[in-house]
Design brief:
Elements: E1 8-10, E2 56-58, E3 65-70, E4 83-87, E5 92-98, E6 104-111, E7 116-121, E8 127-131, E9 138-141
Antiparallel strand pairs: 1-2, 3-4, 4-5, 5-6, 7-8, 8-9
Length: 147
């Protein structure tokens, strides 16, 4: 995870590939304060041979992502297959549309106005949002009524 204020990265996992820390990063501070031996991580280099580039980077804005869900329900048919992430720092939900070639074709921010701790799909197909406030709440997102 990148350090606060250094941007966030979404990577797509590929079956049977080994996941490891990589040199390319949008962060220039990642781990420098805890492990000087690997301080070269986070040189600002965004790509490297043999590495898969992120499909979406929020930079320089750090979302402080929380919870990650791929929507599979039936309440929001146009959202099926979309990725959802909460934003602690940005107090929103990020909806990310990725096509079959792992290309981000759209993304949007849905402002909640409170730190979003988690985003989940319920067994009923609705999307539930948990906030991280002293009086935290659970919201249920519902489709807008047809007019």
């Amino acid at each position: 995870m990148a350090a606060a204020g250094s941007g966030e990265v979404v990577k797509v996992s590929v079956r049977d590939w080994t996941v490891r820390w990589a040199m390319p990063s949008t962060s220039v501070t990642l781990f420098q304060w805890t492990c000087p031996a690997i301080a070269r991580i986070g040189t600002g280099q965004r790509s490297a041979p043999g590495m898969i580039d992120p499909v979406l980077v929020w930079f320089p804005e750090a979302t402080a992502p929380s919870g990650l869900m791929i929507y599979t329900g039936d309440k929001f048919p146009n959202w099926r297959g979309n990725i959802f992430s909460g934003g602690l720092a940005t107090q929103d939900i990020r909806r990310i549309v990725v096509n079959s070639d792992n290309v981000v074709t759209a993304h949007e921010s849905m402002r909640i106005g409170q730190r979003v701790r988690d985003v989940r799909q319920g067994p009923d197909g609705f999307v539930y949002v948990l906030t991280d406030e002293i009086h935290g709440r659970v919201f249920r997102l519902e489709p807008a009524a047809a007019s």
